[in-house]
Amino acid sequence: MATADLFTGIHKAVRNLMFTTGLKLQNLDSGDADECLSIMEDIHLIFDLFEEHARNEDRLIFPLVAAHEPELVAALEAEHHAHAPLIAELRDAMDQLDRAVTHDLRIVALARLRIAYFDFVGEHLRHMNREEREMLPATQRWASDEELAGTLGQIISGTSPETYATWLRWMLTALMPTELAGMLRGIVQAPAPLMAIVETVAADVLPTARWTRARNMAGLDQQKAFDQHAAA
Questions:
Q1: Pair 150, 68: CB distance under 8 Å
Q2: Do residues 175 and 210 lie in contact, with contact meaning Cβ atoms separated by under 8 Å?
């Protein structure tokens, strides 16, 4: 049975982004135009990343299971489509806040936006839990670690460097050291530009001691020392 995990890391990144944005929305100063603009940008980023994530699941991950557990795949695909009304309500609430020209109107619009946002978040939290509870073990039952690694490679290669860096910013700060080490072991043979993005983002968002510990757990620093010794 395979052990590779295509869900937990990316879902931790999603939760990190959702929770951070949710807190920002809750204490937003409705009289500060820059704060209102910033929260709009954050939610638009969530839309963009969620659309990409759902597309990768539908096109690349779910097909690994479809022939064996079609009912599960159909149910999760249906949940992806069922998110549309929540997204539409959230977009409309954002438009209302954007159109609000007085303080009182912004207060009303912000209350609506907050409710719409947390309806959206609540549904996605439930959906991700189901994927981790049911689809994750299904992928490990029906696909090999090699197939799962190949699928991850397809996902990463289909993501722009800028978007990949954005995902990493939310993912790296949400992972335990053991998970960081596992991620590093999974991409240790990745092209140098990809590893450079990982190292750059990690240096920016993680305490040095935490990143060093993850690298040591993954054996990267030992391998680097071995390679340097061999080349001498």
A1: no
A2: no
pTM for this structure? 0.92
Task: Yes or no: say if 139 and 3 are a contact pair by the CB < 8 Å rule.
Answer: no
How far is residue 111 from each of residues 91, 116, 172, measured CA to CA in Å?
14, 9, 32
Query: What is the rounded CA–CA span in Å between residue 39 and residue 145?
Result: 39
Which residue ranges in the chain fall short of pLDDT 70?
221-232
pLDDT in tens, 177-224: 999 999 998 887 788 899 999 999 999 999 999 999 999 999 986 545
Q: What is the DSSP letter of 19?
A: H
101-110 pLDDT tens trace:
999 999 999 9
**Contacts (Cβ under 8 Å, ≥6 apart) of 226:** none
Virtual CA dihedral for 195, 196, 201, 203, nearest 10 degrees?
Answer: 110
Nearest to 164 by CA among 10, 42, 17, 16: 10
CB 181 within 8 A of CB 217: yes
- Angle in degrees, 0-180, between the axes of helices 192-205 and 177-187, rounded to the nearest 10: 160
Rg for the chain, CA atoms, rounded: 20
| Long-range Cβ contacts of 72-76 (<8 Å, 24+ apart) | 72/134, 72/135, 72/138, 76/127, 76/130, 76/131, 76/134, 76/135
